[in-house]
Amino acid sequence: MKLPTFLENGPKNLLLKSKRIFIGHGTKDPLIPVTEGERTAKYFESLSDDVTFQTFDVMHNVSEEESETILEWFLKEEVDNPTVKKENS
User: Fold this and answer.
1) Rounded to an integer, what distance in angstroms lies between the CA atom of residue 70 and that of residue 10?
2) Are 16 and 44 in contact (CB under 8 A)?
3) Does residue 24 carry a pLDDT above 80?
4) Distances (CA, A) of 52 to 11, 66, 86, 87
5) Are 50 and 41 in contact (CB under 8 A)?
6) pLDDT tier at 6, thresholds 50, 70, 90
7) What distance in Å separates the CA atoms of residue 46 and residue 14, rounded to the nearest whole number?
8) Is residue 56 a contact partner of residue 24, using CB atoms and an 8 Å limit?
9) What is the band of 5 on the pLDDT scale with cuts at 50, 70, 90?
10) Distance CA 42, CA 57 (A)
C-alpha cells in the first residue's frame, strides 16, 4: 500500500488509537517497494496501539499464506476479546 501524502501531512485520526490494523506487503512487489509498506506501517503505528506489519514472499498480489495469516489475525481478536464476537452477532 502506498500511503497518500494527504494522510501523512493531514491531521491525525485519533479514533484509530484503539483499532487493530493489519498491513501485509510482498517482498518482490515490482509496483510498490517494501519500504513503502514499512513507511505505511510506521505511520499507522503513530495512530494505533495495535499495528501488525508482515511481509510475504510474493509480488503485487495476495498469497494463500497471507490470506491464512489475515484470517488468523481476525480470529485472534475474537479469542482475545470475546465481547467482539457478541457485539457482532
Assistant:
1) 28
2) yes
3) yes
4) 22, 13, 24, 23
5) no
6) confident
7) 10
8) yes
9) confident
10) 20
Q: Are 2 and 34 in contact (CB under 8 A)?
A: no
Residue 56, judged by CB atoms within 10 A of its CB (0-12, 13-18, 19+), counts as: buried
What pLDDT is attached to residue 81?
Answer: 59
User: And the C-alpha cell for 30?
Assistant: 515490482
- Residue 89: pLDDT band (50, 70, 90) is very low
- What pLDDT does residue 78 have? 61
Q: Which helix (H) or strand (E) holds 24?
A: strand 20-26
> What gap in Å lies between CA 50 and CA 46, rounded to an integer?
10
